Amino acid sequence: MESVENNRYWSYPSVDVSISTDWLLTFPKGTVASVGGVLAVTSAVGCPGGVLSGAVIAITKNVGHYFEANSDGHWFGRLSIPKGLTPGAYLLTAACYESREVLAYYQPRVITVRA
Questions:
Q1: What pLDDT score was predicted for residue 108?
Q2: Half-sphere exposure (CA, 13 Å, Cβ side) for 79?
Q3: How far is CA 21 from the centre of its chain?
Q4: Rounded to a whole number, what is the distance in angstroms from the first to the last CA of the chain?
């Protein structure tokens, strides 16, 4: 513990943290999507809320879609890749929702968007 102008504080060394989850998105590794095309995405593990929930998948802050989960919580969706999207690598994210509550986050996956 150190003292700075009579204020006490603790400092901890920084550590690398890696988080893993069973919530996975399925599509082939190295998937390439085309601008103006469609990317099919499936949940490897269903949303915990079952029929009352759904999933939102997003490729950018402004490009995302909501897909309803079936009775066992699994979902499938086709994400439209906008024609104006700049080609490059993007992080595809997804989360399960019920009403406005997040039930689970899926591990993000990298996809490549080409012209």
A1: 81
A2: 28
A3: 12
A4: 56
Residues 6 or more apart whose Cβ sits within 8 Å of residue 55? 43, 47, 66, 67, 69, 75, 77, 94, 95, 96, 97, 106
Q: What is the pLDDT of residues 91-106, one digit of tens each?
A: 888 888 887 788 888 8
pLDDT at residue number 1: 47
What are the structural domains, with CATH classification, of the chain?
A: 23-114 (2.60.40.10)
Query: Which residues in the chain come in under a pLDDT of 50?
Result: 1-3
Output phi, psi for 14, to 5 deg.
Answer: -75, 145
Give the Cα separation of 42 and 79 in Å (integer): 11
Closest CA relative to residue 90, chosen from 22, 26, 16, 34: 34
List, as own/partner pairs, every contact residues 15-22 make where C-beta atoms lie below 8 angstroms and the sequence separation is at least 24, other chains included: 20/107, 21/104, 21/105, 21/106, 21/107
How far apart, in whole angstroms, are the C-alpha atoms of residue 66 and residue 58?
A: 9
Q: Which one-letter DSSP state was computed for residue 73?
A: S
